[in-house]
Amino acid sequence: MKIRRIIPEDRNKVYGLFRKGFPGSNIELNVLQKLHRNNRSLHEWACIHTNKKIAYIAFSNAYNGNEVCGLHLAYFIVRPDFQGRGIGSELLSFALRQKEIQASTLYVLGDEQFYKKFGFELCLSPGCQFTRKGKQFLSLRNTPEEHFTVSYEPEY
Fold first, then answer.
1. Distance CA 12, CA 61 (A)
2. Integer distance in angstroms from the first to the last C-alpha of the chain?
């Protein structure tokens, strides 16, 4: 298995991974396709095993008003038949070591227990417009100076 940056020629295989990972729903796939179509800044990598994309991770900009305030872990998916093997943990660890990711405050909406293993902490400030019951908003390298609500690219 190897991990590499996604290039435009890889996108159709990533879209196929989304179809397997989110069967019966195109919501996540449609947003990702819009982000790509609109040339939004994404930091994205995939795990490849026997020439197949088996996992994908992408970070997009997070905003305080019109100012970029960090990155948001936008997508993180492991093909269902490869889950439970540590592939997601390996991919996230790899992404967190990348220069452009290390230089930013990171935000994620997800499983508190999982993300705490990677240094994320509950984020009380800033807030998140997408926080729902049962979902946790966490951050890494967050030094809030003011209270605001993190916003995201308009495609979300």
1. 23
2. 31
Domain presence at residue 156: no
Q: What is the CATH number of the domain that holds 91?
A: 3.40.630.30
Residue 155 lies in a domain: no
Cβ atoms of 110 and 138 closer than 8 Å: yes
Q: Going by DSSP bridges, is the β-strand pair 127-128/149-150 parallel, antiparallel, or unpaired?
A: parallel
pLDDT of res. 133: 54
Q: What does 102-152 look like in DSSP terms, one character per residue?
A: HTS-EEEEE-HHHHHTTT-EE--SSEETT--TT-EEEEES---SS--EEB-
User: In total, how many domains does the chain have?
Assistant: 1
In a domain, 11, yes or no: yes
This prediction has a pTM of: 0.93
